[in-house]
Amino acid sequence: MCYHYFQFNFVKNKKMNKQIIRDFSYGHMYTCIIRILTVCILLVLPINSKAGIQNKCIDNSKTGSDLSVLRYCRAATENTAFQNSDVYFTYAEILKKSINRMPPNQELAKKFYIMAELHNPDNSGAFFNHGILLLRQHRYEEALNIFQHAAQLNHPDGTYQLAMMISKGSETQKKSKEVFDLLLKAAMQGEPRAQVALRDYYSSGTPELNLKESYFWALAASTNGDYLAKSNIESNARRLSQQEQINQQNRLKEWLDSFGNNEEECVRLYRIKSMNAAFGFCIRAARSSSSPFIHEIIGDLYMSETAGNSPDTAQASRWYEISASEGNTAAAYKIGTIYDQQVRGLSASESQKRAFEYFSMSAKNDHQNATLKLGIAYELGRGTLKSRKEAINWFKKSALLGNEEAAYRLGCALNTAGEYEESVFWLSVADIWGYRTASAALKSVQRKLSSSKLNEIKDNVDKFISRDLSD
């Protein structure tokens, strides 16, 4: 394999190439093998470095600040030698956000959704979110095309969106049949909004009046988390006899059982961003599973707008706490952020105390944002006693994990403590990392040091930044 790399000019060291050719010509096979191994090492090192920054991109999307995700994903995508659909998708997702008072870069996000799709044509989540981005930009023809790809890849939410777009177009009989078939496909995959639409189709006589089918899909939508379907289920039931209701309930049970492993389907749908379809599978999985990850996913679903429902912080908190009690440090951070905003029914001090406990639990697993929150807690005395020493320790840990706000707060704390050289170092890092108020703070501390000392610090900062983007 290494020889093929050499032959196809992946190594651009012409001197090394000539040496290998000469060794082959003279029959010095042992020397040639050593040189080819050297070539392999030269090839692998940058690839491993790039793999490291790609891991930072993806890992920070789960535990880090938005700015750190933006920084690491940008660096990971700049070199095309080691391409990764998941990295492109993660970068596209972060580009859609407004970060550090910068507006979303939707055109660049579109570009990286396309990159994700090109490097993994089966990445249905990229197609779906790309379609949603285009839809919000009112680029309907492009969105329609992208949703068609998502539907072909059996993305439930994408199939539903495609049906909705077609339904708002031509009203010919052919289009109506196409819409119905797409809704049926999405409903069979567990999409609750499609199931509600089928309920309405059958109750209104389109394509046919069928009260049993209407009740069946009302039951299915209710089971899969649609609150409106739950509230209207009785009106559907009144139109059927008791025995007919029981028959449809048994039919629903058999249909749900046919999916097999709810836990696997829950995780699969969550990972492809089909949140509406994931909800029902995750709830059913939780009844028989003690997986902390499943319980965390349910918390995430309650915090999002699934099946047209508004975020439910109380339910999300319940599931995050269950997951955290099972040792999930990611869920511990999420419930910590909820308590940090003060939970209704608790005093500010009690809410802050619980937030501190959950951040402490999460920080043990090097969660970037949790370590920052602990530093702030010690700095301000939120949920614990004030301690500048502990604040500095946690800010430094978070900064070393790549958090720009932690680097800024660390620099400010060190300035207050009279540690001007280290203060300039971390404020410089925060400034380079894009923390908006770091520049002004940095200038005020730099006045306290000589030019030679500032140049020395600058060299150390450059080395740190370079290492941060190569580890």
Q: How many runs of DSSP E, i.e. beta strands?
A: 0
Strand content: under 5%
| Overall geometry | elongated
Biggest pleated sheet: none
Cα(first) to Cα(last) distance is: 26 Å
The computed structural class is: mainly alpha
The DSSP helix count reads: 26
Helix content: over 70%
Question: How would you describe the overall organization of this protein?
Answer:
With 471 residues, the protein is mostly helical. It has a domain at 402-471. It is 75% helix and 0% strand. It contains 26 helices and no strands. It has helices at residues 2-7, 14-26, 29-63, 66-78, 85-95, 106-119, 124-136, 140-152, 156-167, 173-188, 192-204, 211-223, 227-237, 242-257, 262-271, 275-288, 292-303, 313-325, 329-340, 348-363, 368-380, 388-400, 404-416, 420-432, 438-446, 451-468. α2 runs antiparallel to α3 (29-63). The longest helix has 35 residues, at 29-63.
Write the layout of secondary structure elements.
Layout: H1 2-7, H2 14-26, H3 29-63, H4 66-78, H5 85-95, H6 106-119, H7 124-136, H8 140-152, H9 156-167, H10 173-188, H11 192-204, H12 211-223, H13 227-237, H14 242-257, H15 262-271, H16 275-288, H17 292-303, H18 313-325, H19 329-340, H20 348-363, H21 368-380, H22 388-400, H23 404-416, H24 420-432, H25 438-446, H26 451-468
What would the keywords be for this entry?
single chain, mainly alpha, disordered N terminus, elongated, 471 residues, 0% strand
Question: TL;DR of this structure?
Answer:
By secondary structure, this protein is mostly helical. The protein has helices at residues 2-7, 14-26, 29-63, 66-78, 85-95, 106-119, 124-136, 140-152, 156-167, 173-188, 192-204, 211-223, 227-237, 242-257, 262-271, 275-288, 292-303, 313-325, 329-340, 348-363, 368-380, 388-400, 404-416, 420-432, 438-446, 451-468.
